[in-house]
Amino acid sequence: MKFEVLTLFPGIVSAALSDSILKKAMEKGLLEVKVTDLRDFTHDRHNTADDAPFGGGPGMVMKPEPVFEAVDRIKAEGECVRIILMSPQGEVFNHKKALELSREKCKLVLICGRYEGIDERVRLSLVDEEISIGDFVLSGGEMAAAVVIEAAARLVPGVLGTDESAELDSFYDGLLDYPHYTRPAQYRDMPVPDVLLSGNHAEIRRWRRKEALKATMRKRPDLLEKVELGPEDKKLMGELEAEMWEG
Ligand code: 9D3
User: Fold this and answer.
1) N or C terminus: which one in the chain shows less Cβ crowding within 10 Å?
2) In angstroms, how far apart are the furthest CA atoms of the chain?
């Protein structure tokens, strides 16, 4: 999959792409990420990328010209493009969106805003969609763009090792993870659950599924409304409910 990030702070985005999984994906030719400095598309000697808002008020607004010219250059390269604005007003990013982007054939152009925002004409005439990564305030779209790239790239077939991707296939089912343990089997006053040392793989699988259901019920009950539970899950849920009454 192909990304091009348009930003006034290319260093922030590049730093986030030094992750080893992403580097390997790039070496394998499965992922291409170009980071473009919007200052390269300014023309005055101060490389001005922002200006005061029309109508007055606090802060500065990102000028439209560098963004339009950068997008013109990308389009002139003849590629099919899908233009995404990273913005707090966007649709909130999730696994489903990551999967959809991972299957995109066109180049994904991620525009990162800074300051109070970007000139509205960018949104009106260039942008296909807006993505937010959640309801909190960042200083700009760079960290959000890095999040989107990492989450989507991991879902491209071949990017993860076989172990990790097998886990994705079977376990990204909308439940929270089960607890993990490693050696030592006893640490301070905390033993590892016996079932994990038993070697009984059917029992271990059942225990993990039950713990995943328990964690989801306790911490993210909203997720259970969306997930489809199989017959075994329903049985495990029944057991959990009974155990709740026992205390
Ligand atoms: C404090 C300024 N805010 C006034 C209501 C508006 C505002 C402008 C610019 C808030 C944040 C930003 C910069 N953020 C992003 O560009 C951004 C973002 C985010 O802040 N949260 C979650 N996802 C994203 S994607 C891009």
Assistant:
1) C
2) 74
pLDDT one-digit tens code per residue, 39-89:
999 999 999 999 999 999 999 999 999 999 999 999 999 989 999 999 999
CB 93 within 8 A of CB 151: yes
The response to whether residue 54 sits with its C-beta less than 6 Å from ligand 1 reads: no
Q: How far is the CA of 110 from the centre of ligand 1 (A)?
A: 15
pLDDT in tens, 131-162: 999 999 999 999 999 999 999 999 999 999 88
* pTM for the structure as a whole: 0.96
Ligand 1: does its nearest atom lie under 6 Å from the Cβ of 146? no
DSSP one-letter code for 4 = E
Rounded Cα distance, 54 and 161, in Å: 51
Residues labelled catalytic:
88, 116, 154, 169
Give the nearest ligand 1 atom to 59 CA: 2
